Amino acid sequence: MIAASTARPTTPHLQLHPQLPLPLKQGDIWPGDPDAFLVRFHDRNSGATSAVFPFFRTADGSTSYDLVIHAVPRQHSALHLLDIGCGDGYLLERVNHSTPRSFLYGIDSSRGELVAAHRRLRHVPAALYLGRAETLKPFADASMDAAISHMVLMLVPDAPECFRAIRRVVRPGGTFSAIIGRRSDEDGDALELFSASLRKVIKGRAIGLLSFGDMRLRSIDGLYKILSDELGARSVKVNDVAVTAEAPSRQIWNYLAPTYDIERQTQDEQRAVKRDFLTRCSERWGSSSAVRCTIALRHVICGL
Q1: 3-state secondary structure (DSSP) of residue 72
Q2: Sign of CA pseudo-dihedral 32, 183, 303, 12
Q3: Deepest of 199, 232, 249, 257, by most Cβ within 10 A of its Cβ?
Q4: Phi and psi for 294 in degrees, rounded to 5?
């Protein structure tokens, strides 16, 4: 088990546990196992999240990554911090800039993302591990001062197990800060047009649209109940936020295209979705105007 250390690592460390299953081979459009599909997608599309979200901002100019980091209290002693679903290491890199004396750890289920993180964090003393959010192995009890996560926890199929693992790993008095997705209420927004284009192309097909994660996290009441019952938080704050980008329609397409549902379509179907989306954008905003795209999020901040 990985316990809190008093010696900050001087070079990045990457540990890929060999007992975990290998990612699926390319060409498996839908393997039937959502977890395996997510691993396969991120192995093939490492850095997809961090390539998009820095361009989306709140009304005051913050990114969703800024929100996660700013909720973690600064402390005089070195901070031991774990990024759950660390992806390609973008958020850990940002944490290192804001709190350079921190002990940084990341865990992700995708080898591809972790290899990208190791490359990104080559000058950052961070330890990276292949593992699952539901268990957070190999981290020891009360080994972290804070845990953070960005656009991951709403994908976990067993949310209570995941939050119990967070409760185990973060010390009493520690902090948990996470961004999760929520349903958008923006009518006529580019994201709505994108969904309409996708549904039009796959209409009549048996596969339908994907659904991941624990359904209880989709309602505010369900989220609060899990945070109270499983995380055992002494304080809970949930803020509904929205981040927006305005750009030409083709750039907005580039932001939205690397998604799980698009991944499952054939190349012809992907081109059809793109054509339909660009046509809808032109009809809505005109061919030369910037397109507005808003992503609805929830920011969860807990004191443990």
Answers
A1: coil
A2: positive
A3: 249
A4: -120, 135
Question: Would you put residue 62 in left (φ > 0), alpha (ψ -120 to 50) or beta?
Answer: beta
β-pair type (144-150, 80-84): parallel
Count of all residues that appear for the chain in the document: 304
Amino acid letter for position 158: D
Please report where in the chains the tokens 């990276």 appear, as a residue: 128
CA nearest to 85, candidates 101, 63, 105, 99:
105
Determine the Cα–Cα distance for residues 295 and 255; give it in Å rounded to an integer. Answer: 11
As a whole number, the mean pLDDT across the chain is 88
CA distance 177 to 152: 12
- Residue 263 pLDDT: 87
Question: Which helix (DSSP H) or strand (DSSP E) does residue 298 occupy?
Answer: strand 291-303
Q: Is 68 in a helix, a strand, or coil?
A: helix
- pLDDT exceeds 90 at position 113: yes
Q: How much is the pTM?
A: 0.90
Is the preceding omega at residue 18 within 30 degrees of 0, hence cis?
no
Helix (H/G/I), strand (E/B), else coil: 38: helix
The mean pLDDT value for 147-166 works out to: 95
Which residues, 6+ apart, have CB-to-CB distance to 192 below 8 Å? 184, 186
CB 180 within 8 A of CB 154: yes
In single-letter form, the type of residue at position 66 comes to: D
Q: What span, in angstroms and rounded, lies between the C-alpha atoms of 32 and 264?
A: 12
Q: Pairing mode, if any, of strands 235-247 and 291-303?
A: antiparallel
Helix (H) or strand (E) holding 103: strand 103-108
Q: Which fold does the domain 32-184+211-242+297-303 belong to in CATH?
A: Rossmann fold (3.40.50)
String of DSSP letters for 109-148: S-HHHHHHHHHHTTTS-EEEEE--TTT-TTBPTT-EEEEE
Going edge to edge, which strands form the sheet with 144-150? 13-15, 126-130, 103-108, 80-84, 144-150, 170-181, 291-303, 235-247
Tokens matching residue 240: 């509904």
